Amino acid sequence: MGNILEFVAIFWFFVCWLGYTEYSRRRAADRPCLSNTLDMYRQDWMRVMLRRGNRMSDTSVVGNLERNGAFFASSCLLILAGIITALGYTSEAMEVFSAMPMSVVPTREVWELRLVVLLVVFVYAFFKFTWSMRMYNFLSVMVGSAPLADDTKASPARREAFALSAGKVCSLAGDAFNLGLRSYYYALAVVAGFIHPVAFMAASTLVVVVLYRREFCSDALVALRSGKIFEEPLPGQSDPGAKSKS
């Protein structure tokens, strides 16, 4: 019965992780959220960048964003090294956790399965952070090749097309970084699974609730939307000047 509960908890974890990822992607298409709001800011950033003669500030911002991804990618490698080491010391680790109150000591196979799940989470995070880094690198190249402010050969249509393209690359990089960062939240839920399968399921559910509130109902979303008058209505918004009711 204990092993069945373990597998149910792992199944519920992946339902929460993959299900919320897909839900948030679809929901962002018809409701204001942090993701589509920041997309608008990124496009405006590229439009402003094209009007600037000196773009050192833009390259500096892109560099800072890329370094954030590098920091988390490096952290993932350290964590992965620790998890692989823990796989070689399963018996010792099980003894430590068995002394914790309310902890359920599983079989060795189930314990190693938990570590493998944690390994998968951080491998996924590593790939997302490194892909985000690469796209910010692409963006820095685009900023370097952007038409100059006094370039008379660049038509307004060409400038707008460039701003939209660069903004899209920036948004993709930000989305990849966001998915990598979410993995850290889900990793905390996996850690709860080392205490008890029920704690694992409860933590997985709690992570989804926290992510939903921050993405769709946070004060940060209200502040971002209050500080911007959008030229185009965001998904789910009929009045271009309307503010979030979240």
In short:
This protein is mainly alpha-helical. Helices cover 77% and strands 0% of the residues.
Give the SSE map.
Blueprint: H1 2-27, H2 34-51, H3 56-87, H4 90-98, H5 108-145, H6 156-193, H7 197-216, H8 219-226
Radius of gyration: 22 Å
Binned, the helix content reads over 70%
Largest sheet: none
H/E series:
HHHHHHHH
**Large-scale geometry:** elongated
Structural class: mainly alpha
Number of helices: 8
Q: Domain count, please report it.
A: 1
Strand tally: 0
**Which range does the strand content fall in?**
under 5%
Give the overall average pLDDT: 87
Task: Supply database-style keywords.
246 residues; mainly alpha; 77% helix; elongated
Describe the structure.
The chain is mainly α and 246 residues long. It has 8 helices and no strands. Helix 5 (108-145) runs antiparallel to helix 6 (156-193) and helix 6 (156-193) runs antiparallel to helix 7 (197-216). It is elongated, with a radius of gyration of 22 Å. The model is unreliable at 238-246 (pLDDT under 50).
